[in-house]
Design brief:
alpha/beta, two-stranded antiparallel ribbon, binds 2-phosphoglycolic acid
Length: 267
């Protein structure tokens, strides 16, 4: 099973309607069907504008979070089906092609500031898949955990939440917390070690063929000047980019750094 590189932009709590429009207008014509798959995840309020511009292009739009229930009394929350249906007014017949396609689950900032647990992250991911969305599921250790030699144990525990998910609509993101927004990046060797462990773990949880085809992204201070080295590692199948994704030229340089060819399970 081959693995097409996946490069995702996580805008976090940044951007305006005008900035997402300008950004996507600059990006959509450059991204083709042959290179890496490209996903842009702006804040909820910018999703309709983003979807309108990305419609018909090779750029997919993703959300940064969703609730684990399909509807209910949850003030301030957004259900996955609402995301998938955002474009209903635009082109009802083409919902699957035109709606929000991806959602991020289990990001460390959600875990750190909003009480996200392994269980709630897993529940969000399952709900998202029920609504037809593809999921980027994030895991990663703190600096203390790394220094205590607990990295692989933490990744094993966190990734248990992907059990039962549909691997055809899933990507994992390894995001060492000490590298997020800090300018510190994992070395290519550290990333490869973690990614290989995650692929082994995915094999136990999802089965070997699914694990061989699963894309595992690296996130944590990915920039145009370090992307190529990280993406050259054999189990690094893409990137989840925060700060450096806000500038469209920087994000494009990172997309460009991804290997053009798909990777096969036999590598
Ligand atoms: P960063 O964020 O690239 O700004 O480190 C990555 C992420 O949190 O997804």
């Amino acid at each position: 099973m081959s693995r097409r590189p996946l490069i995702a932009a996580n805008w976090k709590m940044h951007g305006t309607v005008a900035s997402v429009q300008a950004y996507l207008e600059a990006l959509v014509d450059r991204v083709g069907a042959a290179g890496p798959e490209v996903v842009v995840c702006p804040p909820f309020t910018l999703l309709p504008a983003a979807v309108l511009i990305a419609t018909g292009s090779e750029v997919a739009i993703g959300a940064q979070n969703c609730h684990w229930e399909d509807s209910g009394a949850f003030t301030g929350e957004v259900a996955p089906a609402m995301l998938a249906a955002f474009t209903g007014e635009v082109a009802p017949a083409m919902l699957a092609e035109l709606g929000v396609r991806w959602v991020i689950a289990g990001h460390s900032e959600r875990r750190q500031y909003f009480g996200e647990s392994d269980a709630s992250a897993g529940a969000r991911a399952k709900a998202a898949q029920r609504a037809g969305l593809d999921v980027i599921f994030c895991v990663g250790e703190t600096l203390e955990q790394r220094e205590a030699g607990a990295t692989l144990a933490v990744l094993e525990r966190q990734s248990t939440a992907i059990e039962g998910l549909d691997p055809a609509h899933l990507a994992l993101a390894y995001e060492p917390i000490w590298a997020i927004g800090t300018g510190k990046t994992a070395t290519a060797t550290q990333a490869q070690e973690a990614h290989a462990a995650l692929r082994r773990r995915a094999g136990e949880l999802l089965g070997e063929p699914a694990a061989a085809g699963l894309r595992i992204l690296y996130g944590g201070s990915v920039k145009p000047d370090n992307a190529a080295v990280l993406l050259a590692e054999k189990d690094v199948d893409g990137a989840l980019v925060g700060g450096a994704s806000l500038d469209v030229e920087g994000f494009w340089a990172i997309i460009h750094a991804a290997p053009g060819e798909h990777r096969g399970a036999e590598e």
